[in-house]
């Protein structure tokens, strides 16, 4: 390329310093050139443009006897491109700087050549074509690569056109949406959504703003999504199984009718702000207690003397059936002492209702009746043999409240009569870790509430 490029520049004709006008004109004509270089030996004195000759001829007189060196114009810096061996860069720099194409160039071989605008333009056009081909090749490569990506990608311009889209993205857009306009309408803003595409296939579609518009990605989340669905259905199965255990369908309806609230406590004012309402809250609370019982059963706790599975399960199902909640909505700020009934009231009510309706024994009755009593507040006649179950029952009642109302993760590790508890939630103030012995009542917190 370098050699061809150099060949495109014609060698400039030259005349000696003492040449007269006729010799200069003859040299111009013979070489079909518009300028001629004036030399003295190896030194360049300047150049003569054909227009200079014409001007002299028109003026006539003594001027016609001048020698070439007398009318030679010195070559200005902007008229000379020093190096064009490598590329057109030097010429382009000159054009940018002075606003016109240089006249001459001097190669490494020292030969002065004239720069033809046509050749420069042709050369630039060739360069442009080469660059365009390179860009097209890179674009094709990017498109090919994008088609083998495991995720779908679409680039939407700021004015709502799809600029680039790979195969996965195209398949989803054409299979899921009426047309690309409908898709763009939904996803040309910052958002994320899970869409079902074909049976069992789920994609998370995320849109993020980029310089030119919005980049939309389609990630296959079928595995995790199907797993969550499975978990949901197993949760449903647990609920169905629990419902089957109930002696009376009215208990299910009763528990489902009791809401639970998520609130934020303000220490200064002593008020709470309602931040969420959990529908069927009490039903969920009981289910979560039953799961904790199942966990304790697996770990052998219910095999201990003084522990009885049926008593605990029955107490769990019935312990809150007498609970009455106030009607509150998100945003309400209330004094909890005023709006919520004291816990022992619903405990007593639940115990009496259960005794009258479901033929419970004394153990279940006492566990329900005193489930909101601190151990130190228990009446003197409370049977001592019930204390292990009473302690365990209050423990799972509290843990389930955290799971149900605060989305806590609670774990129990059972070692003989000791239970190590860890509770973590999105509300760090409620995180706790403690150890309790259900036989002795020994309680030690590892991380204060
Ligand atoms: Fe309760
Ligand atoms: Fe409860």
Polypeptide structure, described:
The chain has 449 residues and is of the alpha+beta class. The protein has three domains: 114 residues, CBS-domain; 72 residues, Beta-Lactamase; 217 residues, no CATH class. Helix content is 44%, strand content 22%. The chain has 16 helices and 18 strands. A five-stranded antiparallel β-sheet has the order 8-7-11-10-9, sandwiched between helices. The protein has a four-stranded antiparallel β-sheet with strand order 15-16-17-18, covered by helices on one side. Strands 1-2-3 form a three-stranded mixed β-sheet. Strand 16 and strand 17 form a beta hairpin. The N terminus is likely disordered. The site of one fe (ii) ion has 4 residues, from loops.
